[in-house]
Amino acid sequence: MRVAVFSSKPYDKRFLGEAAAEADLEVEFFEAHLDVRSAGLARGYDAVCAFVNDDLGAPVLEELAELGVRIVALRSAGFNHVDLNAAHRLDLTVVRVPAYSPTSVAEHTVALILALNRKIYRSYNRVREANFALEGLLGFDLASRTVGVIGTGRIGLAVATILRGFGCNVLGYDRFPNPDAAEVGLVYVDIDDLVARSDIITLHAPLTPETYHMVNTDAIGAMKDGVMLINTSRGGLIDTAAVIDGLKRGKIGSLGLDVYEEEEELFFDDLSNQVLQDDLFSRLLTFPNVLITGHQAFFTEEALEAIAATTIGNLVAYAAGERSGNEL
Ligand code: NAD
Question: Is the CB of residue 215 below 6 angstroms from any atom belonging to ligand 1?
Fold first, then answer.
């Protein structure tokens, strides 16, 4: 089976390459993002391996199917960027990596909380300039603060577990409560209660039509003054314009993001020599109380090993005419 890997980086070559070498798969790595212009690169391949910001809308899937591609292997858990109706219509199998080291994302989430609260990113710069003043660096004790976790699946519960260790009260909201939540000490409440009571709100629900812009002007208005808002799930959960307004008014005390709703045009590439064209993103960068990372929460050795192993396993199962259980 021949596999075309899109949006590939040196670390993909390392981890996927090692896993593929142990299987009977011929893997070619393309740096190009997958979109209508680059889909032609998949000519002659049976499988396409794609990442979170690749375009898997109907036009791209139609072209892939026409070129003879039979399976799309996502090396991600999220699949909001795939037109599954089109894939099913075209008889294209789509597989994903449903779970890989939830602790990687959970630990990054907590890193954002700690860095924002104690302004580590500001002190790092100050000390390098021999500025040892503390004004502007005031934080708060996490112990006994209330944290609201929206989406209490694998990652949400891992975040709750870590924060319980800090002595936080952890509230949770989920459409399908997690049976392991009580053991961790997470207490379920309804969404209005969570929003009104939390000092920190962290998002771990998937992006769906229902969760799109769940953090909007109304939701922000119902939050505590000075709330810390964290999103390491998917950018579309947050209405960025509403959040910028909340930051300007001081309603939102701090914001930590690893994802952004228009990140396809930005993340994973070095744009440092270019003028950013996204005005909302550029505005976010001006706030002293906003900390943004470029979709790196998953980026640990353990996660990349697990992603590579499951992705290659998904492809090997398909080649053998078997189901991996990770089909969408
Ligand atoms: P999961 O499926 O284990 O958990 C998601 C939870 O969200 C489930 O319990 C589900 O019931 C809940 N949910 C669904 N709709 C909801 C709604 N409307 N309101 C409240 N809860 C709702 O998934 P996971 O492994 O914990 O991953 C969560 C998200 O994290 C993924 O969807 C993905 O978008 C994101 N993610 C980000 C990174 C990163 O690097 N930043 C890496 C992996 C995953």
Answer: no
